[in-house]
Amino acid sequence: MTAVTTPQVKKQSTLRRVLSYVGRYPLSMVGVLFFSVLTVAATLCVPVFFGNGVDCIVKKGAVDWHGLKICFIEVGIAAAVAAISQWLLSLCNNRISCNVVRDIRKDAFDKIGKLPLQYIDTHPHGDTVSRIVADADQFSDGLLIGFTQFFTGVMTILGTVAFMLLTNWKIGLVVVIASPASLLVAKFVTSHTHKFFVAQTVTRGEQTAFVEEAIGGLKTTQAFAHEDENEEKFNEINARLEKSSMNAIFYSSLTNPSTRFINNLVYALVAMLGGFAVMGGGFAVGGFTVGGLTKFLSYANQYTKPFNEITGVIAELKSAFTSAARIFELMDEEEEISDADSAVLGAGENVLGNVRLQNVAFSYDKSGKLIEGLSLDVKQGQRIAIVGRTGSGKTTLINLLMRFYDVDGGQVCVDGEDVREVTRRSLRESYGMVLQETWLKSATVRENLKLGNPNASDEEMIAAAKAAHAHSFIKRMEKGYDTVLGEGGGLSEGQKQLLCIARIMLVKPPILLLDEATSSIDTRTELKISDGFKKLTEGRTSFVVAHRLSTIIHSDCILVMKAGRVVEQGTHDELLALGGEYAALYNGQFQ
Known about the structure:
6-stranded mixed sheet, 4-stranded antiparallel sheet, elongated
């Protein structure tokens, strides 16, 4: 399995891309700004009203009850406005966060459909899933917290600074000068925690990949009694995840108490200087009353609170942007070469099925050679069998015909057109493929059978199922053709393969690619559906990859591959008479 790599996307570019997604929702952004201002304004008005109230009762025996009543009414109105605007602010924040993550997930999933098959083959599936699911969730949480606290925090800082300077500019200046100390401490701590969040995110992706692999191969694991080794491997990854998570959480958690300690010192300093100002000391400005000191202390506390919140959320933002970098790393992968301007195979008319390979060269690992100098000319309606030892290049040839991979040299042509010069969609719509590895989506039997031909009638679908000898076991299912597959299984590999064969029989493409299409089917059933295959292949070009050589003896031509080359070519009788590689393979099955 390919190791999961650390994302190398720069934070600045990640931030710019995140903002480009956020910018798609300008109305919500305006709502965030407006309700942030309204929330902060209403909140900052409360200390003013309370300070006025304190001044109404501070004189002994001279309580201003009317003024006190007005203060309480003003406080109630301000609190109500703050609560409503805070609720509306949360709605706007949630809308931005959820929509942005939805868009990123959509773009990431669309990207998967555009990636070359080589990427899917060389990267752990679980890690790719982790990027779209777990990393997107982590990013969503961080983005929501960041938006909620960033705007209100900035507005609160600006608002409290203005109020403090207007109330007593000397003490206000002391607060403004002393507060950056908490930011310096926060920056020092967070700059040393980024690496831990990167390690946490990468290890989480590795764990997801291993779990996906372990569940997919559970039968094999149990068959070979490999559970203890799997558990040991999982525990090792889990321990690394625990360590990296603990480091990230512990070191990032130092930020909040450190800044709170400094902010509390600032608060104590303000209280002391304010007390001197009330008594007419050197910090007195105008008539600085007890109510004014009350307001000032409240503002000093509100001024430092956003620093605590913002520095506390930096850890979440670090983790969120690390997760975003991993998603964007997937989205930055090189796509398949676009074929938007390419021609449609057969100019939209019926494809005949003439296939020609001319001096084809290809290898998965470019440092070595797999297929070299392969030439082949197949006429419409011919049945071509491809045999050879494991690793000889049989399935690779199918991949090149389907253009899952592009050739390194030479040409693959269908009806005289180079497959690289036509759209992949038109090319693949001309093929019908049944692989050794079956794939059925989580849907009804009906939907699975009509996957390649959604407009087929139920009568055509049932006829195809009968031809593939799948109709009998489908009718025995609880809901017949409306039974949902993928919910608890219940089908054998052979039955799944019969459904895949019926699916192709319903499409009736001009070219068939059968890669061990009957490998999971017993010989008796295989003989029964051979008539269906004969009808299906009649007049159609077909390529059949087979290890069970008895199934391909009536092919028009048999290609014997060895080390990426066609070493023998001819009919069954011709190749047996030749006494070469094919004869050795064929006779070896009956010894």
